[in-house]
Amino acid sequence: MDYNLKKGLEEGRKEGRKEGMEQGVKAFIEICKENSLAKETVSDKLMEQFSLSAEATKEFMGKYWMMESKS
Length: 71
Hints:
Helix content is about 75%, strand content about 0%. The chain has one domain (about 5-65). It starts with a helix and ends in a 7-residue tail after the last helix. About 10% of the residues are buried. By secondary structure, it is mostly helical.
C-alpha cells in the first residue's frame, strides 16, 4: 500500500472516530437531560464515561446541554 493511501485511510478512521464520539456524547447528554439529571452530575459522568478532559467536557456541555430534546 502506498504512503498516501495509507495516510488517507488513517485520517479517515480518525475523523470517523471523532464523529462517532461526538454522536455518542450528544446522545448521552440528551438521555441524561430526559431523565432529569443535574448538569453537574451529567458533566461528571460524561468525563468519566468518555475519558474526557475537563476542557473537552465543558466544550461538549456548552454545545449540547441547552439544545432542545428530540421528544
